[in-house]
Hints:
Blueprint: H1 3-16, H2 18-29, H3 39-51, E1 56-60, E2 64-70, E3 77-83, E4 87-88, E5 101-102, H4 107-121, E6 133-139, H5 147-155, H6 164-170, E7 179-181, E8 184-185, E9 194-196, E10 199-200, E11 202-211, H7 227-240, E12 252-253, E13 256-259, E14 270-279, H8 282-303, E15 306-315, E16 318-319, H9 322-336, E17 341-343, E18 346-347, H10 353-357, E19 362-363, E20 366-367, E21 370-371, E22 380-381, H11 384-416, H12 423-431, E23 435-440
Parallel strand pairs: 3-6, 3-7, 7-19, 8-20, 9-17, 10-18
Antiparallel strand pairs: 1-2, 2-6, 4-5, 9-20, 10-16, 11-14, 11-15, 12-14, 13-14, 15-23, 21-22
Amino acid sequence: MLLSDTKQAVYNEIDRRGDEAIQIAKEVLVNPEPGFREYKTASIIADKLRHLGIPFQEGIAMTGLKGILETGRPGPTVAIIGELDSHIVRGHSNADPQTDAAHACAHHTQLGMLIAVAIGLQTPGIMENLSGRIALIAVPAEEYIEIEYRNDLRKQGKIEFLVGKSEFIKLGAFDDVDLAMMTHADNSMGHEKFNVGGTFNAMVAKQIRFVGLSAHAGSEPHVGINALNAATLALNAIHAHRETFRNEDYIRVHPIITRGGGAVSAVPDDVRIETFIRGRTIDAVLSVCKKIDRALRAGAMAMDATVEITTLPGVLPLQNDISFQNLHTSNVDQLLGKGNTRPRGHETGSSDMGDLSSIMPIIHPFIASATGRSHGVDYLVHDYDLGVLTPAKSMAATVLDLLSDGAKQAREIARSYNAPLERTDYLSTVRGFASEETFRG
Ligand SMILES: [Zn+2]
Ligand SMILES: [Zn+2]
């Protein structure tokens, strides 16, 4: 069969059974769960993989799944990735009323895509043309949130890293994967339907606790130590550093206070902050980290408080592989006509797909399927054909390009990828970002 005929057969099957995939996305949408808690979501995906007759492992990094489509011929493994987790956004129209979890980043559509790609590749006669394997990976916890909760999981030994793909890499779940792709929803595009290429910021996370001394806030504040004032001074010292951030480093530092005190009648003695330090390169992030740590110590010193700073590995910078991206773009051109991809520049957000891109070629295109503010109350997907089926077709067609003809193109892209890290160096590199410090002011 000609490659163009196999692609058309896959598109037809994805159209014919598209409702099944969209149904999965919509089921996940109304069962939102943040990272490392995606039990209902994982069971929706497990049921569907079982229904499709695809063998899979589950419970990887607590909730992750990995299904395999085998061609029976030797060759590289291409992963299609869907992220299981929601965000937490109070007031979102699809928020869980108990937990405020909501799919305000539209990861539910990725799981629909994962299923649609599987359905497309299961079209009779397709796998016979391919070599190698397709891994269908549903990975937990892309959103780096609830740091205190996840750090507790870390202390209990349930996870080591606070995002799913790092945890998958550590567990060896990507050891047999050579290339990986996923498509994320996007809200900010012109007439083009896909946003492709570009780079993303790296990130390091901090969990911070200011410890003071409680005392009656009305009658005896002079014998207390106000941890909230220490934290406020530290935050202002962080803000004072902003004028030193260089444009080319794309620094983002955005702390939140997750605990501001206990009883209003007492001097606050336990104040907690979480923050990211994001930047274009690891070096830029680490140089700003030093400033942030000094600012935190300064707040503690001024108030005679103590600050505990836990620095946690975040994510590595993301880069798209150009040859891989070109294959995908040619499929978008074929599906939608030329002029439907817009090149993306540098993204100041970050993703743990960056960790994968540090060890293997990846692509992370965006599909213009969402409206509203990303991570906001009004972030919604209206067009599920475009949001689920179109990217499933472009990814499935790219799998066909990669794995047909004895998987020639997949081998070539994997072989020529200039990975920023050796796989064997990944864990030591990322672990090197972790530290703990207690500073008594
Ligand atoms: Zn997000
Ligand atoms: Zn996202």
